[in-house]
Design goal:
174 residues, mainly beta, Immunoglobulin-like, Thrombin, subunit H, eleven-stranded mixed β-sheet, three-stranded antiparallel β-sheet
Amino acid sequence: MPLLTMQDVHVNAVLSYDVTLKTDIGAAKAVSDSAFAAITDPSWKTSGTADSGSGTTLVDDALTQVDDFWNMCRIMVTLASGSTYLNRVQDFDAGTDTLTLLALPQGEVIAAADTYEFYEYPVTPWVAASVASNVVTVSIPTTATLAPGPRRLWLFVDYGTTQETHWGDFRVLP
């Protein structure tokens, strides 16, 4: 994962950043291709207990956030066996309280009473980023809800057949 060099910003500023990609995707992009960015709080974490799950899902009716809220958050799942797995949320369906994760190792399944911890709370919603050639432009307003403190910018680019992830740490100043 390439690390971005970030500058600190003030509350209510607009964070605008150009990222040069490894791959030149040209001017046209297929509908399945995408670039999204969000800001997280790297010092934050919270935990919960699964109601049910599978090798790729975790269901917890205590998750009351909107669709996609937990997307791309890091999650540590601890199974009843004591095995722990660091994973990333691929999708959150608010209607079913279901987190879709990357597949656990073969034979491992999330079940009722297994525990989890989220890391890096999203402090901004995911926003689409514009793409031209091999440069992605990210522009996120640091609204009043983005309080002073440490933050991390995540950028995910999906070419349809390959992906790139970029991130960088910065601080929001009063």
